[in-house]
């Protein structure tokens, strides 16, 4: 697929967003807090219009045969909208991420070096079927002093337009320029966004593996995100089986369309028979289709797992189950098939727990708890713009701290390098208080 050059209109819009980002980066903490408060109020006032638009999107998407997992993500009822609005207010209450001094050093008498956090500038976010993600992203972008160009999936077109209309209204009641949030509505615009290097500082894709891979392959703009969410839960021989079952049910069934829901359940051979005897009825009652290896099939799981299932992100009520002989075999399976998103172990053995926590190279490694906790809101970030599985920071749920960079400031009084090069002066390199 060819990526078209941006139209003159899109370039002009990007220039306006860039200009808004410059002023936004110079705004005060109070101004950005007040802007988010105004946005939350506007979203509340427009609740009926937003929910109505979402119902129209849902009706059209059902008629078009959208999958159940995407329909689940698309749905924005009043409860879900209220939670998103509350998230905006919580983001407003978070500490200001801008202007934090990370380094303060005297290089010489009267020559001082500082490293301070600053906004990235303009972030571009392309997401599928998640209108509540638009609210999260906009609030985090503004709170961290960044402007944002957003492109949601066509299935959520009316909902996204209603949300951005409310955001614009809220910004109109604040001192922040409404150009700081820009919504793209066509496929051509979203593709052309990838060509806006020099105007957009970071692209964040939120969607399918194919979407993320396409974006990574077709832009020179840095890309932050993850392609797959193949999460594992390993139940060790030293696990409390009642606790393990509770965690497994939650990790799969609480919201199966989420990227932090488990897709594979690994069972130690010593507890597999007794665990499956308890678990199969619960999973059946919850509507989960279980796919098992040969051992699991002999223990009551009817459907056979194929080799491809170990590397499949279902985003649905489907779960692959495998029996392993040791912690090492579990670690090897996760290393070969995992996506470095989130993996969890259930065990009461401290030695085994420690080995798992320090051997699994994922952005989230959990002990005795559900993988569904891998979320910016639950981590106390207020919200998240996405989850990054890359090893370079930011990693895991990306909140405010992931949307700032830093700049070095050097302040002197007529200092020149030649004095130090000649040996007339030497650097003191004295660290001062932050």
Automatic annotation (TrEMBL):
Gene responsible for this protein: proA
Entry EC no(s): 1.2.1.41
GO-annotated biological processes: L-proline biosynthetic process
CDD domains to which the protein is assigned, alphabetical: ALDH_F18-19_ProA-GPR (cd07079)
Aldehyde dehydrogenase domain sequence ranges: 3-280
Catalyzed chemical reaction(s): L-glutamate 5-semialdehyde + phosphate + NADP(+) = L-glutamyl 5-phosphate + NADPH + H(+)
Species per Swiss-Prot/TrEMBL record: Prochlorococcus marinus (strain MIT 9211)
Identification of the protein by name: Gamma-glutamyl phosphate reductase
Taxonomic classification: Bacteria, Bacillati, Cyanobacteriota, Cyanophyceae, Synechococcales
Main location: cytoplasm
Coiled-coil regions listed in the entry: none
Pathway it works in: Amino-acid biosynthesis; L-proline biosynthesis; L-glutamate 5-semialdehyde from L-glutamate: step 2/2
PANTHER family: DELTA-1-PYRROLINE-5-CARBOXYLATE SYNTHASE, GLUTAMATE SEMIALDEHYDE DEHYDROGENASE
Entries under Pfam families matching the protein: Aldedh
Subcellular location: Cytoplasm
NCBIfam families, alphabetized: PRK00197.1, proA
Family: Belongs to the gamma-glutamyl phosphate reductase family.
Known function: Catalyzes the NADPH-dependent reduction of L-glutamate 5-phosphate into L-glutamate 5-semialdehyde and phosphate. The product spontaneously undergoes cyclization to form 1-pyrroline-5-carboxylate.
An example molecular function term from Gene Ontology annotations: NADP binding
One GO CC annotation: cytoplasm
Stored HAMAP family: ProA (MF_00412)
């Amino acid at each position: 697929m060819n990526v078209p050059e941006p139209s003159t209109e899109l370039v002009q819009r990007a220039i306006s967003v860039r200009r808004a980002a410059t002023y936004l980066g110079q705004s005060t903490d109070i101004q950005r807090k007040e802007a988010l408060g105004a946005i939350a109020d506007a979203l509340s006032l427009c609740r009926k219009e937003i929910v109505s638009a979402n119902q129209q999107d849902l009706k059209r998407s059902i008629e078009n045969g959208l999958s159940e997992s995407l329909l689940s993500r698309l749905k924005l009822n009043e409860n879900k909208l209220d939670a998103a609005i509350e998230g905006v207010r919580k983001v407003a209450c978070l500490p200001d991420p801008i202007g934090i001094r990370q380094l303060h050093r005297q290089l010489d008498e009267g020559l001082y070096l500082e490293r301070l956090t600053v906004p990235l500038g303009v972030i571009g976010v392309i997401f599928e079927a998640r209108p509540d993600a638009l609210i999260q992203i906009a609030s985090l972008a503004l709170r961290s002093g960044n402007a944002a160009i957003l492109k949601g999936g066509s299935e959520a077109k009316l909902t996204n337009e209603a949300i951005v209309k409310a955001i614009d209204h809220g910004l109109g009641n604040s001192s922040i320029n409404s150009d700081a949030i820009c919504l793209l509505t066509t496929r051509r615009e979203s593709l052309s966004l990838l060509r806006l290097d020099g105007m957009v500082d970071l692209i964040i894709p939120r969607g399918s593996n194919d979407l993320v891979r396409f974006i990574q392959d077709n832009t020179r703009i840095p890309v932050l995100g993850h392609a797959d969410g193949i999460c594992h839960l390993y139940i060790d021989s030293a696990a409390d089986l009642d606790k393990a079952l509770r965690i497994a049910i939650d990790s799969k069934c609480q919201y199966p369309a989420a990227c932090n829901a488990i897709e594979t359940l690994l069972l130690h051979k010593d507890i597999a028979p007794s665990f499956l005897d308890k678990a199969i009825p619960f999973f059946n009652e919850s509507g989960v289709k279980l796919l098992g290896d040969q051992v699991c099939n002999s223990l009551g799981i009817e459907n056979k797992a194929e080799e491809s299932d170990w590397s499949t992100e279902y985003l649905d009520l489907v779960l692959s189950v495998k029996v392993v002989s040791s912690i090492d075999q579990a670690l090897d399976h996760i290393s070969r098939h995992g996506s470095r998103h989130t993996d969890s172990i259930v065990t009461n053995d401290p030695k085994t727990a420690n080995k798992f926590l320090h051997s699994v190279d994922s952005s989230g490694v959990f002990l005795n708890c559900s993988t569904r906790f891998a979320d910016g809101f639950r981590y106390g970030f207020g919200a998240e713009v996405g989850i990054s599985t890359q090893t370079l920071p930011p990693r895991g749920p990306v909140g405010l701290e992931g949307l700032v960079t830093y700049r070095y400031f050097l302040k002197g009084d007529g200092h020149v390098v030649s004095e130090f090069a000649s040996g007339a002066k030497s650097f003191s390199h004295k660290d001062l208080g932050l």
